[in-house]
């Protein structure tokens, strides 16, 4: 068996999500991945990162807090950049990394607005580098299968979709950058809720033509809860409900898809898939290849084994949808048409 070539990585941002979902999982299961350097301005976060490497008996990478200097000093030693920083930094950092010749795995939401999304697509096209947005649902084989079922007419004509997500997000993120709109770009619906928006759009595979939304900040600087009504190009309807102030620790979600010949049930992260058709009295599990980690998918995409299901075009799709949501809410739930 041919030995896998080493993928040399820079981790940009070493907060809790980066440590849990990228650094730890990489050290646990991907011997071909080498974390060469990190870029983390917080001494506490870097110390927590070092502790993970110590736990696995590996020498911790150096920390270069200036990204431009990192790319200058280490660029020729790197293949990939993983970016898990506050949302306002995604566009300039992803652009700089691709311009430096690196493929990029970028945490969601991709960027702050549709202008940045369009510009990032231009950078991808000009540099020819790979850009994958780390949407769990978009990378999940359960969601790929759900999309095939719905778009292939296997549960008849699509009639409606009902989705929800809840989390004790308001209290849990109090005082953090996620509740600073200039840095985060939005609140609960732009953060956790981004998974719901993207996964629903992936499943239906058709554009939204109209949005009605009510968003409530609940005396916070950013949105905490929202109700979104949408109409698709086919005429099917969508309802999405997000509550980030439950008072219950945890986070849960569900998406139900209703067609003229059956129903589907899944989660916004694509954790499972169930179907009910014909004489079924309850949902039945759909046999799908087990979902792999974000890193497994990214490496498979990079190796040319599968197509990229999360290119920057989905970031542009979400940015335009978010623009319509915020416009409708600002106008008291006025219907907003999307081209």
Topology:
Blueprint: E1 7-12, H1 16-29, E2 33-39, H2 43-55, H3 67-74, E3 80-83, H4 90-99, E4 103-107, H5 114-127, E5 131-134, H6 136-139, H7 141-151, E6 158-167, H8 169-172, H9 181-184, H10 193-204, E7 208-216, E8 225-232, E9 237-243, E10 251-259, E11 262-266, E12 273-276, E13 284-285, H11 294-302, H12 312-330, E14 336-337
Parallel strand pairs: 1-2, 1-3, 3-4, 4-5, 6-9
Antiparallel strand pairs: 6-10, 7-8, 7-14, 8-9, 10-11, 11-12, 12-13
Description of the molecule:
By secondary structure, this protein is α/β, with parallel strands linked by helices. It has two domains: 7-135, Rossmann fold (3-Layer(aba) Sandwich), CATH 3.40.50.720; 137-292 and 311-337, Dihydrodipicolinate Reductase, domain 2. It is built from twelve helices and 14 strands. The strands form two sheets. The chain has a nine-stranded mixed beta sheet with strand order 13-12-11-10-6-9-8-7-14. A hairpin with a 4-residue loop joins strand 8 (225-232) and strand 9 (237-243). The radius of gyration is 20 Å and the shape is globular. The N and C termini lie far apart (51 Å).
- Class of the largest domain, according to the CATH hierarchy? Alpha Beta
Task: Give me the Rg, rounded.
Answer: 20 Å
Average pLDDT value?
95
**How many beta-strand elements?**
14
Order of helices and strands: EHEHHEHEHEHHEHHHEEEEEEEHHE
Estimate percent helicity. 25-40%
**Which architecture of the largest domain per CATH?**
2-Layer Sandwich
Short description:
The strands form two sheets. The protein has a nine-stranded mixed β-sheet. The protein has a five-stranded parallel β-sheet with strand order 2-1-3-4-5, with helices on both faces. Helices cover 36% and strands 24% of the residues. The protein has helices at residues 16-29, 43-55, 67-74, 90-99, 114-127, 136-139, 141-151, 169-172, 181-184, 193-204, 294-302, 312-330; strands spanning 7-12, 33-39, 80-83, 103-107, 131-134, 158-167, 208-216, 225-232, 237-243, 251-259, 262-266, 273-276, 284-285, 336-337.
